[in-house]
Design a protein that fits this description.
This protein is mainly α. The protein has one domain (28-339). Helices cover 87% and strands 0% of the residues. The protein has helices spanning 2-28, 30-54, 60-117, 124-149, 153-168, 172-179, 186-225, 230-240, 247-262, 264-289, 298-339. Helix 8 (230-240) packs antiparallel against helix 9. The longest helix is centred in the first third of the chain and has 58 residues, at 60-117. The radius of gyration is 24 Å and the shape is globular.
């Protein structure tokens, strides 16, 4: 009996060591892992459109070429139209920044005097230093992460051809997962991969539509209120929609801050607008758009976002939600097997 316990203990220790080594290796090559994950997500997102074209009796190669061409040309057209407007607003904001700093300094000076009468120690200069340090660190992290992944020619080419291969190959994503599993688990792995692809593709399509709706809603509302830099703020808000629960809150911060820098009335109006917009989105728009996407535990999503931010910065935040959805399919499969 003791020998059997020793053997079991040794087996567990060896498996645990292998898991730790595998996790360390994946962290060491995390840039490559990010490229692979983006390629898988791209292929999964485009899969419904490719399958729809296949119903029109097109070959898979022709369907893939059409979808990728439309995606590329549409993206280029969107950038050509929006980027000049976006950067013009950013330039205008930077030109007006000294005036905004004076207004903010005056407000914080009054706040410091008021809080001191209540016995609360608030240092205006330290507040400015903390903001500058956090913003500089965040921008530097975004810049270095972006350069390390997307401005690397090898990574970019690898991402494109891997996504293209997964789209051209019939059930390419499922076959990719089969390469990572032993033969005896191929049936189970194929089933899990198929469900993962369906779940993630539904979420990606719904999420893209939700981001577009949020962008349009924010832009119209901010334009009606005459909040400066409406396009840039709405664009930022649309991107933040990819983060569940906390994204809409982050999206409201720039509009409210700039509104208060212009006037207290405009700041309060922007705050009320975002509260109403968030309620409409959360209770009317999102349930309709995402009704085919299985929900996830909010606590699990928030923890996943924090882990993604720690491991890979902004790119990790973007990937945290779909990875969590993929893992949920795997966990559900394990629980079903145990129940059986």
């Amino acid at each position: 009996m003791s020998d059997e316990r020793v053997a079991i203990g040794t087996n567990i220790a060896v498996r645990l060591a292998l898991v730790v080594l595998a996790a360390y290796f994946l962290y060491f090559v995390r840039d490559v892992v990010l490229v692979v994950l983006f390629a898988i997500l791209t292929a999964a997102a485009l899969s419904p459109a490719i399958n729809k074209l296949r119903e029109w009796h097109l070959s898979r190669a022709a369907a893939v070429i059409i979808v990728y061409a439309v995606l590329f040309l549409g993206g280029v057209a969107l950038l050509v139209i929006l980027l000049p407007l976006f950067f013009s607003e950013v330039k205008e904001f930077l030109e007006n920044w000294p005036e905004y700093v004076k207004r903010l300094d005056s407000f914080l000076s009054n706040l410091q005097v008021y809080l001191s009468t209540l016995g609360i120690d608030f240092q205006k200069d330290q507040f400015f230093q903390d903001i500058e340090g956090n913003v500089a660190g965040w921008l530097s992290h975004i810049f270095s992460t972006t350069l390390g992944l997307f401005q690397s020619f090898i990574h970019l080419i690898g991402f494109f051809f891997l996504a293209l291969y997964l789209s051209l190959e019939e059930r390419g994503i499922e076959k990719f997962f089969l390469l990572l599993t032993p033969k005896e688990y191929h049936t189970q792995a194929f089933s899990i991969a198929s469900r993962m692809q369906g779940k993630v593709s539904q979420w990606l399509v719904g999420q893209a539509l939700l981001m577009l709706i949020a962008f349009v809603m924010y832009y119209i509302g901010l334009t009606v209120l005459h909040v400066p830099y409406a396009l840039a703020i709405a664009f930022f808000g649309g991107i933040m929609e990819i983060l569940p629960y906390i994204g809409p809150v982050i999206a409201a911060i720039p509009a409210i801050m700039i509104g208060f820098l212009v006037s207290p009335v405009l700041g309060a109006s922007a705050l009320i607008f975002y509260i109403i917009a968030h309620q409409v989105e959360a209770h009317i728009i999102a349930p309709q758009v995402m009704k085919h996407s299985a929900g996830l535990n909010p606590v699990a999503l928030i923890i996943a976002i924090l882990i993604g931010a720690e491991l890979a910065g902004p790119l990790g935040i973007i990937l945290s939600v779909p990875i969590t959805m993929m893992l949920s399919v795997f966990v559900d499969d394990i629980l079903e097997k145990r129940q059986e």
